[in-house]
C-alpha cells in the first residue's frame, strides 16, 4: 500500500481517546460495585445531566437506539433509580425522572468519572488542562445546531 495514514490526526486522536476513556470508566464503574452495568450507569448519569427528559431525547443525546435505551431504563426502573412518567404535553411520550434512590449510585459514578479525569490530567498543568477544556468546548460548538444553521446562510 502506498498511502500512509497519520494516526495522530484530530479524528483518530479523538476517537482513540473516547474509546480509552470509555473503557477506563466502564472498568471503574464495575469496580465501584454498585451493581449497574456501564450502560446503565451512563444512562443514569445522562438522565441526571438532562433533568426530566423524554426517553427518545435521552436516547438521541446518548447516541443510542431507542430500544437499547429502553432496556437500560427498564433495568434502572426495576431498581427504583428512575421512573417513567407521562409527558403532560403528550401523554403518549414518557419522561425519565430520577428518584431519590439514584443519589447513592450517582455518587459512585461521579467518583469513577473523577478518577478518569484525574488520569487524563496526569502530566498537565492547571493552565494546560483549562486550555484543553476550553478548546474542546469551541470545537464542540462548531458542531452545534446553531453553528450548522449559521454555516448554511
Automatic annotation (TrEMBL):
Keywords: DNA-binding, Transcription, Transcription regulation. SMART domains: HTH_MARR. It holds the Pfam family MarR_2. Residues 7-141 form the HTH marR-type domain. GO terms for biological process: response to stress. It comes from the Bacteria. GO terms for molecular function: DNA binding; DNA-binding transcription factor activity. This is Transcriptional regulator, MarR family. It comes from Chelativorans sp. (strain BNC1). Transmembrane segments: none annotated.
